[in-house]
């Protein structure tokens, strides 16, 4: 199954936020989306998730315009974990994860033991089994984030879209989460701020600046000193390992250099 954007424009009011972006997500890949604050990552993810219909261009799932897929069908194929999503409902963690099964339930297909098993597995995947009966409002920011991801996993999507999924997580859970999603039999698109995490886990990286897609390719192709200076305004050296892996080493004293 494919997910593809063709020459997408999305505007808020009169301002173009996403500017003529074309992108084909390859089946099975882990695609990272990087870019400075306000460069359009969240907006692009929302278009990819089918939440924001583009003003121009086409967002396609399985070769068909997303507008033609119903919400329920989209929800079975695409799990989207938004930034800072919250709920005021009085739910336990387990009940919040169970919401992920909604697109599969109907009068003819009521809740079953299989749904229970999927919910328990999703809770286990994000290391939240021991907190499954806790109420949502009592969870920490990181625990809530893990519940959101479990809810998306319970959707059993083909595409998992994660908007800054490691926000709020401690380093063990950041690495654990990225390792988990890389191992899952799903296609992942994740907006990431940590460029070394993008280098470690992504098959490809797409880089945005001011609403435009300015590059897409392997971590080594995208994470260059020139790109980091031009797009992020930081000075860094990229170290390359023997197997093509790369590590970003940021230079300190940037403020002083700029002032000079
Ligand atoms: N509904 C909206 N109305 C007006 N402006 C918007 C709207 N949504 C996004 N924007 C603007 O569009 C630009 C891109 O926002 P977006 O949230 O997509 O960026 P981002 O790359 O995800 O940023 P960050 O890294 O800070 O999360 C920003 O300047 C933002 O203020």
From TrEMBL:
Full protein name: Histidinol phosphatase
InterPro entries found in the cross-reference section: AAA+_ATPase, ABC_transporter-like_ATP-bd, P-loop_NTPase
Similarity remark: Belongs to the ABC transporter superfamily.
Domain ABC transporter: 3-235
UniProt-listed SMART domains: AAA
Keywords in alphabetical order: ATP-binding, Nucleotide-binding, Transport
Keyword check for DNA-binding: no
Domain of life where this protein originates: Bacteria
GO molecular function: ATP binding; ATP hydrolysis activity
